[in-house]
Write a structure and sequence with these properties.
Length: 85
């Protein structure tokens, strides 16, 4: 019985040693509007608009100077329209 308890305690100790201790931070969804103050330190990803035509939804994922991840959803004119005057 002591071996079972000792084995269980060892399993708990090794499991907690390899546990992810990084706190999970929530992604901030910025509000759209006429003016949005953005503190962009690093762009993570953007929507590819090169093959789109017309007004399309776009997304910008970025990190601010505090390391917090932000998401900005907005509307943009696609640059893939051909034969437009």
């Amino acid at each position: 019985m002591k071996m079972l308890i000792l084995g269980f305690a060892a399993l708990l100790a090794t499991g907690s040693a390899f546990a992810d201790t990084q706190p999970q931070t929530a992604v901030i969804h910025d509000k759209t509007g006429f003016f949005v103050h953005m503190d962009v330190a690093k762009v993570l990803s953007t929507t590819d608009i090169s093959q789109q035509c017309g007004i399309i939804p776009a997304r910008l994922d970025y990190l601010d100077h505090n390391g917090q991840e932000h998401v900005l959803d907005y509307q943009v004119e696609g640059s893939g329209c051909t034969n437009d005057n």
